[in-house]
Each structure stands twice: as C-alpha cells, then as structure tokens.
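Lab notebook, design round three. We kept the backbone fixed and only want residue identities now. Task for the bench partner: fill in a sequence for the structure below.
Input structure tokens:
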C-alpha cells in the first residue's frame, strides 16, 4: 500500500516541477540583473544612507538572539558563582566523589578562573550587596538594550516601508508615463489586464520582496556569523558538531521548501484555470441547459478539481515533512550539545554559564538559515517581477517626437498619401497598399469599403497611431513625422470607432484634452453633435456623473459625447472613424449636416458605411484590400458603374423595402 502512495506523490512532485520549469521557460519567472537595476535606481540611488542604516540595524538585530544566552552566562558564571568563589577562598575546595573517580567542582577548574567574563567579576570577596549591585547594573543594561533594540526595529520598519513605498510611487509613475508613451503596436500586443498587472500586482509583489530582503538578508547573515564566532569561541569541537548539523538542516529545508513551492505554483496555475473554466460555464449556463449538459459539466469539474485536491494534500504533507525533518535535526543537535556540554561541565572543561550560552546560541542558529533560504526564493521571485517591469521600461518608443520639430500649420491642411503602405506585424499582407492620393485643404472625404479593407487603418495612420511601413503622409507638404506628437494631435483630432466615456461628469468628458475650454464652447460643441438637448434634461446637466465606463449613456449618446470632445478644440483636421454608426439614419443625417457647417474650412476624413454620409461629403474614397478602387465626387460616382454605385443601389433598395414594410404596418 505504501509503495503506490510514495510513487503517486513522486509523480505529483515531478509534474509540479515540470509546471514550474515551464512557467520559468515562458519567461514568467525569469530575468537577469533587473533587481539590481531597480534597486540601484529607485532605492539605493535615492536614499543610500537610509539603506545603509537599514542594513546595519537589521544586522545588529540579527545578533539579538544571542544577547540572552550571553546574559545567562554572565549571571551563571560571574554573579551566581561569585558566592561560591567567595566561599572557595575561605573554605577547602569541595569535591564530588563518585564510585570510580573524583570530579572537581567547576570553580576549582583553572579554565573557569580564566573565563573571559571573569576578568570583570572574579574578584574574591564580593559581598552579597556588591553582587546585587552588579545584577542591577546588568538588568539596567538589558533594559537599555531592549529599548534601543525596539527603537532600531521601529526605524527598520519605517525606513523599509518608506524606501519601498517611495520606490513604488516613482516606479508606478514612470511605468504609467511609459505606457502612455508607447505606441499603438505595443498596446495591440499587450492586453490592458497585463498592463494593469505591471502597475499594481507586480509593484505590490516587488515592494513586499524588497522589504523582506532588506530586513532579512543582513539579519540572517549577521545571525549566522555571530553564532559561528560565539560557538567557536566557547568550544570549537562542539561548534564543529553544530556546523555539521546546520548544512543538513539547510539541505532538508531547501529540498522540502523547493518542492512545496513547485507544488504551490502548480496549485495556483490550476486554480487560475479552474476559476476561468467555472466563470465561463456559469456565465454561459443557458447553453449548458439548452444542451442538457449539466451532469457532464459536473463530471468535467470533478475531473479538473481532483488533481488540484491531490496537490493540496501533497503540499500539506510536504509542509509537515519539512517541519518534522528540520525539527528533528535541530532538536537532536541541541540535545547532543546539551549532553556533551554537560559532560564537559562535569570534567571542568566548560562552565555552567558556557553551557547555557552555547546551547542558547546553537539553538538560535537554525532560524537564520531558514531566513536565508527563504530569501533566496524571494530573490528569484523579485528578479522575475523586476524583469517584467524593466521590460516595460526598456521598451523602445516606436513613435516619438522628432529632434527638430516643425510648427504645425495654422490653417486648413492638405493631406497627401505618397505611395503609402502599411502592414501590421505578423500579418501576411499589407492593410494599406500603395495609396497615392491628395485630399485638398478643407475637403471632406468619406472613406468607404468592405469590412477589413483598411479604412480604420488609414484613419489611424493619419492620426499617427502607426507609422507607414512604406511611403509618407504629408500635411501641407510636410511629413507627419516632422511634427511634435502633442501638436499633431491638437491639429488632427481622431475619434475612435469605440466611444470612450471616462468616469466623471459629462462636461469633463467633453472638455477632456481641452481643459481650458469655457462652458460656452462645451455647450456649442454639444449642440453641434445634437447631445445638448439630452444633457439639458439631466438633473445636474453638464455636471451629471457618467458611471464607470459610461454605462448610463446609450451607444449613440456616447458616440456624440466623443464627437463633441473632438470639436471642442476646433481642430484643423478631423478624422472620424465610423463614429456615428450607433445613430439612427435621421440623427446621423442631421449631425452630418451640422458638421458640414462646423467644418466649413476644415479637412475631414469620415469613415462610414452609409451612402447618406458619403453624399454629404466632397469626395468619396473607396478601398478594397488596402487599395484604392474608386475616388471622386459622390454625385459623379453614382453615375458610373462601380462599387460606390452598387453600394448606393443596395442601401436604396433596403431603405425602400423598410419604408414599404412601415407603410404596410
Ligand atoms: P476596416 O476598418 O476597413 O474594417 P481595418 O483597417 O480595421 O479594416 O483592417 C484592415 C486589415 O488589417 C484587416 O485585414 C485586419 O484584420 C487587419 N488588422 C487591423 N488591425 C490589426 C491589428 N491591430 N493587428 C493586425 N492586423 C490588424
């Protein structure tokens, strides 16, 4: 029966270790030199003196465990024994007789008289009063030490908290700034969830790890070094026994803690997957019901949770084995120490005080070993977290300001696509393919084409969210790349397909990006996009709060808030990426009419599927697979056979059909 259990546990340990290795290979738990860089830049670089004080105080506190064994020795050897010493000077030396030999009393030993603490107090003839005075002095010294120790611990606590919190504060700001600087291709490849993890969970983990390291590493090393010196000073042979036990303890602790870490990592990984699975199935419970899969789903869940349960049991077992093995090694060693030192006391080569001090010191030397081993694991975790943070910090900014920026034009702009091509990374074909056209200043161009034809990509290229892979975009004959990004974004306002409403008031949402705009301008913009009447019906009007992510606004209302936001700054070029799609045809027609007046001397690119929008524009650009297939005035294009006329006829037929349906009803 035992054999299968052991082999089962072994197979779980092997599997968990594989999971751990895989996670490390995936780069989730790897890095090189990142911790050092972050420590130097954000902690040591900012407050070297505080770091130094933390190191020194932590080291001193690491030696505290040996204070009481030392005090015990002093009391036993130099205060309590003084009474016996006093007597020894007057009385004949007593001996203890056993059956076969005579064992001298401790105070008779020459070694005892040479004991290092006896230099102070081994003066024969101290009266009880003097001994009590010395005891009082010792107690006072210990109390002063306790106060000092707690003051040091308080400093250590506050200083590490300050160092790590300040580092987190600065680093979070840097990462936040960097994430804003990084261009669209980076954000395409990284989910918002992952970026938020960098900003919050990773920072929190890093704060915790740095705190632990700064407190425990000097503390643990000082504990081991001081303990080694003390034990060797008292009795080097006995010290060697302890020195043999410490590595055994360390190896056992390392073995079990590493296995436990692997299993716990595996558990976390499985728990994450299980949570995702349950959330997915519960949110889609109607499908489960519709296909009568309830029992099957329960069985699947049981099958998924069984290995998790087994790993949790193994983790508990490892924990128990760790405590037992390490406890046995430490307990056996200290008992052996006690036994051998008791014999040494009896043969006079060790004093009672030395026995107490050696035993107390040796027993306290195991704790720093666990501390150091734990901190090695913390360091690995820290390196992983820091590597992730450093990777974001080092990410090159693909779209940046030029070295010698030009002033942006202050009038209507001509836009020229000069053999413009663009291909997304890791895609087989270009999204925009050799586009060579000019949009005259003040023209309104409707960009049309089937889904995936490159309309949004072209809009984003004009707003410089991406840089062309070939060719150029020229604004009044100047390359787009020659302008500062902030100036360019004020010159060209881009309104995204997906409307974005921030939490805050509607007024603030419209004013976003043009914070200096007065209320009149905000109201005017809202009127132009036909949202003012709706806002006026709200109890707090422009001060009404949009709930998080704009849940209280409909899709069409959100789109109009976004449009109003773009109009507030009165841009010279407006790029609207299908941002009226949620409006009904009537509202859209009125809105486009209004925009026609507002944008009278502005250049505008309007991505749209609706022919009604195209008819109100000066030009239509038809795209297909990133290439221009038609371009011209809408009235002219209707007359020519081609995709625009086909679209016009389709939409006209659909509208007539809908009208007939309404009339019949
Ligand atoms: P449209 O706006 O006309 O629907 P898009 O400009 O969005 O078309 O897309 C053009 C092509 O580029 C499509 O084939 C689409 O799959 C691809 N594409 C769009 N965005 C990305 C992206 N971020 N990464 C890779 N390919 C993309």
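Proposed sequence:
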């Amino acid at each position: 029966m035992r054999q299968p259990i052991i082999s089962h546990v072994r197979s779980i340990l092997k599997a968990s270790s594989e999971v751990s290795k895989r996670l490390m290979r995936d780069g989730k738990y790897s890095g090189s030199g990142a911790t050092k860089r972050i420590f130097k830049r954000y902690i040591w670089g900012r407050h070297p003196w505080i770091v130094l004080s933390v190191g020194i105080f932590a080291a001193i506190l690491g030696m505290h465990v040996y204070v009481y064994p030392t005090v015990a020795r002093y009391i036993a050897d130099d205060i309590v024994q003084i009474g016996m010493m006093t007597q020894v000077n007057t009385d004949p030396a007593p001996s203890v007789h056993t059956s076969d030999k005579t064992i001298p009393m401790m105070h008779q030993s020459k070694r005892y008289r040479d004991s290092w603490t006896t230099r102070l107090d081994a003066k024969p003839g101290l009266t009880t009063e003097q001994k009590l005075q010395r005891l009082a002095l010792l107690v006072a010294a210990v109390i002063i030490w306790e106060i000092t120790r707690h003051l040091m611990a308080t400093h250590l606590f506050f200083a590490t908290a300050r160092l790590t919190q300040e580092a987190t504060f600065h680093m979070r700001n840097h990462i936040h700034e960097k994430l804003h600087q990084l261009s669209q291709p980076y954000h395409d490849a990284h989910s918002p969830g992952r970026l938020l993890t960098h900003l919050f969970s990773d920072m929190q983990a890093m704060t915790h790890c740095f705190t632990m390291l700064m407190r425990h590493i000097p503390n643990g090393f000082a504990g081991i070094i001081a303990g080694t010196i003390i034990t060797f000073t008292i009795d080097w042979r006995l010290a060697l026994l302890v020195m043999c036990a410490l590595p055994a303890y360390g190896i056992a602790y390392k073995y079990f803690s590493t296995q436990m870490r692997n299993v716990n990592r595996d558990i976390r990984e499985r728990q994450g997957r299980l949570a995702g699975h349950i959330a997915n199935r519960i949110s889609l419970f109607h499908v489960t019901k519709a296909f009568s899969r309830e029992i099957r789903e329960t069985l699947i869940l049981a099958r998924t949770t069984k290995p998790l349960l087994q790993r949790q049991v193994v983790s508990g077992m490892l924990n128990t084995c760790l405590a037992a093995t390490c406890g046995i090694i430490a307990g056996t060693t200290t008992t052996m120490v006690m036994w051998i030192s008791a014999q040494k006391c009896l043969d006079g080569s060790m004093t009672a005080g030395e026995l107490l001090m050696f035993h107390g010191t040796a027993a306290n030397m195991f704790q720093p070993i666990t501390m150091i081993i734990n901190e090695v694991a913390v360091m690995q975790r820290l390196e992983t977290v820091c590597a992730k943070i450093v990777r974001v910090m080092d990410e090159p900014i693909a779209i940046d300001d030029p070295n010698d920026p030009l002033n942006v034009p202050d009038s209507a702009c001509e836009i020229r696509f000069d053999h413009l091509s663009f291909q997304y990374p890791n895609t087989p074909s270009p999204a925009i393919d050799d586009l060579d056209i000019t949009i005259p200043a003040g023209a309104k161009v409707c960009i049309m084409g089937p889904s995936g034809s490159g309309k949004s990509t072209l809009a984003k290229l004009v707003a410089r969210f991406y840089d062309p892979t070939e060719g150029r975009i020229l604004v009044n004959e100047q390359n787009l790349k020659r302008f500062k990004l902030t100036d360019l974004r004020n010159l060209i306002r881009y309104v995204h397909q997906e409307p974005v409403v921030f939490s805050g008031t509607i007024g603030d949402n419209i004013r976003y990006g043009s914070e200096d705009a007065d209320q009149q301008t905000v109201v005017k913009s809202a009127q132009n996009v036909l949202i003012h009447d709706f806002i006026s019906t709200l109890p707090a009007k422009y001060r009404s709060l949009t709930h998080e992510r704009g849940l209280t606004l409909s899709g069409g209302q959100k789109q109009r808030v976004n449009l109003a936001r773009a109009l507030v700054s009165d841009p010279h070029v407006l790029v609207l990426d299908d941002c009226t799609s949620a409006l009904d045809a009537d509202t859209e027609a009125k809105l486009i009419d209004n925009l026609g007046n507002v944008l009278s001397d502005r250049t505008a690119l309007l991505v749209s599927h609706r022919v009604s929008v195209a008819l109100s524009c000066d030009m239509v650009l038809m795209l297909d697979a990133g290439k221009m297939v038609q371009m011209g005035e809408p009235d002219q294009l209707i007359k020519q056979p081609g995709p625009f006329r086909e679209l016009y006829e389709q939409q006209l037929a659909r509208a007539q059909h809908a009208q007939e349906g309404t009339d019949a009803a």
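Keep this in mind before ordering anything: The first helix runs from residue 2 to 25.
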